[in-house]
């Protein structure tokens, strides 16, 4: 269990994290989501102990093996933090030397992440995806109970993304706790069970993904609308005071049956390319919660 208790981090005039309280259960996969600059990396750095919060606290463990149990944390936060002049093999040997207990063999780790053929190359010559794979190796070879990754799918090819998703599911099934920050929301939906959503340093949600998605749906029927005239349709909806969620690619209309949406759109001379009754996806719920937050009055800090 990881418990964040009123965590706040202030850098000069920027409030990167504001009063964040959340609980992350052991054995869960948690997706840390939020727009650019919302505080995700800062939160991961606080959880891993790389930086101290300005106020509040993070407590980790003591829930699995009784008092005194301190789980190992393995984190990979930045491809830029890798030693660029070293080879992958030399870097992993260094990590193995620092954590001899529980450690996977270097050659085994290189095989596991698909870097065995380039083990002797300097990291500087690696692509971003190869650096991500090396970072993943540096985490798993220490066999931590808690695994933390910042934007792990950044640079991975489709095969790599599927491989990494599989890895997360396998490790979670072993009871390990996993936190990943990501902008790849559709990918996260397939693996994570819990969401922590930040916006402008504030916590908007910390709950099971199923619950998070069902809240939007509870406002009534939802209809997915796609059109070349997305902006015009949204302006018709706004004028008619019909609630909707705007995503970059489509609009979700809430509380109206599909035939009523079609009738309204056609009555204004607009056209549709898709109209489907559906429940909300994680991505749509994400945009809904963010737009509600953007509209909410905010106290200055
Ligand atoms: N070392 C620092 N000094 C000053 N401000 C910082 C520092 N680190 C982060 N910030 C600020 O804190 C806020 C949150 O940044 P953070 O990197 O945590 O966001 P993020 O959600 O990870 O963003 P992204 O999705 O773009 O990676 C930003 O306004 C950022 O400028």
Overview of the structural elements:
It is a single chain. With 301 residues, the protein is of the alpha/beta class. It has 10 helices and 13 strands. It has helices at 40-47, 88-98, 106-112, 128-140, 158-173, 185-189, 209-217, 230-239, 258-267, 282-295; strands at 2-11, 14-24, 29-33, 55-60, 73-76, 146-150, 177-181, 194-199, 202-208, 222-226, 244-246, 251-254, 274-277. The strands form 3 sheets. A 6-stranded mixed sheet has the order 5-6-7-3-8-9, with helices on both faces. It has a 4-stranded antiparallel sheet with strand order 11-12-10-13, sandwiched between helices. The radius of gyration is 22 Å and the shape is globular. The mean pLDDT is 89. The structure holds adenosine-5'-triphosphate (ATP). The site of adenosine-5'-triphosphate has 11 residues, from strand 2 and helix 1. This is ABC-2 type transport system ATP-binding protein.
Largest sheet: 6 strands, mixed
Lateral strand order in the biggest sheet = 5-6-7-3-8-9
The structure class reads: alpha/beta
Number of distinct helices:
10
Low-confidence stretches: none
> In percent, how much strand structure appears in the residues?
15-25%
State Rg.
Answer: 22 Å
């Amino acid at each position: 269990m990881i418990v964040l208790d009123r965590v706040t981090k202030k850098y000069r005039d920027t409030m990167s994290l504001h009063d964040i309280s959340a609980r992350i259960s052991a054995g869960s996969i948690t997706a840390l989501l939020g727009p650019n600059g919302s505080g995700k990396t800062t939160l991961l750095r606080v959880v891993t102990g790389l930086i101290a919060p300005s106020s509040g606290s993070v407590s980790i463990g003591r829930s699995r093996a009784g008092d005194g149990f301190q789980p190992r944390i393995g984190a990979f936060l930045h491809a830029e933090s890798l030693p660029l002049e070293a080879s992958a093999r030399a870097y992993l040997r260094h990590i193995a030397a620092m954590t001899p207990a529980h450690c996977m063999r270097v050659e085994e780790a290189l095989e596991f992440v698909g870097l065995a053929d380039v083990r002797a190359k300097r990291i500087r010559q690696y692509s971003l995806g190869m650096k991500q794979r090396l970072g993943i190796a540096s985490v798993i070879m220490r066999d931590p109970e808690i695994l933390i990754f910042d934007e792990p799918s950044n640079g991975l090819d489709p095969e790599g993304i599927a491989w990494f998703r599989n890895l997360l599911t396998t490790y979670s099934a072993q009871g390990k706790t996993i936190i990943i920050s990501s902008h790849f929301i559709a990918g996260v939906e397939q693996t994570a069970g819990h969401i922590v959503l930040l916006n402008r340093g504030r916590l908007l949600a910390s709950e099971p993904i199923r619950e998070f998605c069902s809240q939007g749906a509870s406002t009534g029927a939802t209809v997915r609308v796609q059109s070349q005239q997305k902006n015009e349709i949204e302006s018709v909806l706004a004028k008619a005071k019909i609630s909707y969620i705007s995503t970059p690619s489509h609009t979700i209309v809430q509380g109206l049956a599909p035939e009523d949406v079609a009738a309204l759109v056609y009555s204004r001379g607009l056209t549709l390319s898709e109209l489907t009754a559906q429940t909300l996806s994680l991505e749509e719920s994400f945009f809904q919660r963010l737009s509600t937050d953007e509209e909410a009055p905010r106290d200055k800090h």
